[in-house]
Design goal:
Layout: E1 4-13, H1 21-37, E2 40-45, E3 60-63, H2 74-82, H3 91-98, H4 100-109, E4 117-120, H5 126-133, E5 137-141, E6 151-153, H6 159-167, E7 173-177, E8 183-190, E9 196-198, E10 202-205, H7 213-218, E11 223-225, H8 232-249, E12 254-261, E13 267-273, H9 283-290, H10 295-304
Parallel strand pairs: 1-2, 1-3
Antiparallel strand pairs: 4-7, 5-6, 5-7, 8-9, 8-10, 8-12, 10-11, 12-13
Length: 309
């Protein structure tokens, strides 16, 4: 196959050292295949197994790392020091987006609606937080993805154990109000001219009690609805606000903004993903397909937006 030399030699970063390593390896393998099929001189690169200075031989990097050291600004800073263009958000936006607590603080300051939340520590008054947030509630590590360490507290007195579970993954833990009207996501991609488009919204309907790691990656009965069931007017409204939430964090390139709906039809932005999954269960490729963008075209569009800083 004749190589497409437009991008030069491309490293597809996958694996890494986070708790999401296995998911990242699947994402990276899918992206690598899609690029190679199109003649891109792409190579897999696992920063857990290979020294970062080996990246100096590459012209461009497609980041498919998830979680710590890949989605939190660390690898982005290293690539900027090496002056190698990379996909997705820069150092600051990646660091903020990875930190659910600080993302929520920023959104709250800008009147972007997010579920009520409290920071939880080992010295917190657990009963007071339960009373303030209300039950049920979700307790999660602030700096993890793929629902690692998350639990749903349904009974009085359950917060302490949920905190201890979450704290195993990250010392920063948040308690978040339950919003029970449905979980949705909005994929976002740039068009190369400093503009961004929101992809069709997907509604996620897990058969588990909530959209946990098993529902995301291991089960085949989770439903993904696109069209999502919202009115056209409501979908456009949320897409525009998702773009604002994306921009507020300083994100660029591509990403995903998750939100919840309550029973009254009010939406609440939940978190932002600056390096979304690209597996066969992943949401951005599903939304892109609904918009008429095949997987191969999607990965090339993301790669075209790579830059430094």
């Amino acid at each position: 196959m004749k190589l497409d030399k437009k991008f030069g030699k491309v490293a597809v970063l996958m694996g890494g050292r986070s708790g999401e390593r296995e998911v990242s390896l699947k994402s990276g393998a899918a992206v690598l295949r899609a690029l190679q099929v199109q003649g891109v001189d792409a190579h897999g690169f696992d920063p857990r197994e290979q020294p970062l200075h080996d990246l100096e031989s590459f012209d461009r990097v497609f980041i498919n790392l998830h979680g710590r050291f890949g989605e939190d600004g660390c690898i982005q800073g290293a690539l900027e020091m090496l002056e190698i263009p990379y996909t997705g958000s820069g150092v600051m936006a990646s660091a903020i987006g990875m930190d659910k607590w600080r993302t929520k603080l920023l959104w709250r300051a800008l009147n972007i609606v997010t579920p009520d939340f409290e920071l939880v520590t080992a010295n917190s008054n657990f009963a007071a937080i339960e009373a303030k947030i209300g039950l049920p509630m979700f307790v999660k590590p602030a700096n993890e993805g793929s629902s690692i360490g998350i639990s749903k507290v349904k009974e009085v007195g359950g917060l302490k154990a949920a905190y201890e579970l979450a704290a195993q993954a990250d010392p920063l833990v948040i308690a978040e109000a339950f919003v029970g009207g449905g979980e949705y996501t909005v994929g976002i991609i740039g068009d190369g001219a400093d503009g961004y488009s929101a992809l069709p919204i997907i509604r996620i309907v897990p058969k588990n009690e909530f959209y946990d790691f098993e529902a995301k990656y291991l089960r085949n009965d989770t439903e993904y609805l696109c069209p999502c069931g919202l009115s056209a007017e409501k979908e456009v409204e949320i897409q525009q606000q998702a773009l604002q939430a994306f921009s507020a964090v300083g994100c660029k390139g591509w990403g995903r903004v998750d939100f919840l709906m309550d029973e009254a039809g009010q939406h609440y932005f939940l978190e932002i993903n600056t390096s979304p999954g690209m597996t066969d269960h992943s949401l951005v490729p599903m939304a892109a397909k609904a918009a008429g963008i095949c997987f191969e075209e999607l990965v090339v569009r993301i790669l075209e937006l790579a830059d430094v800083g």
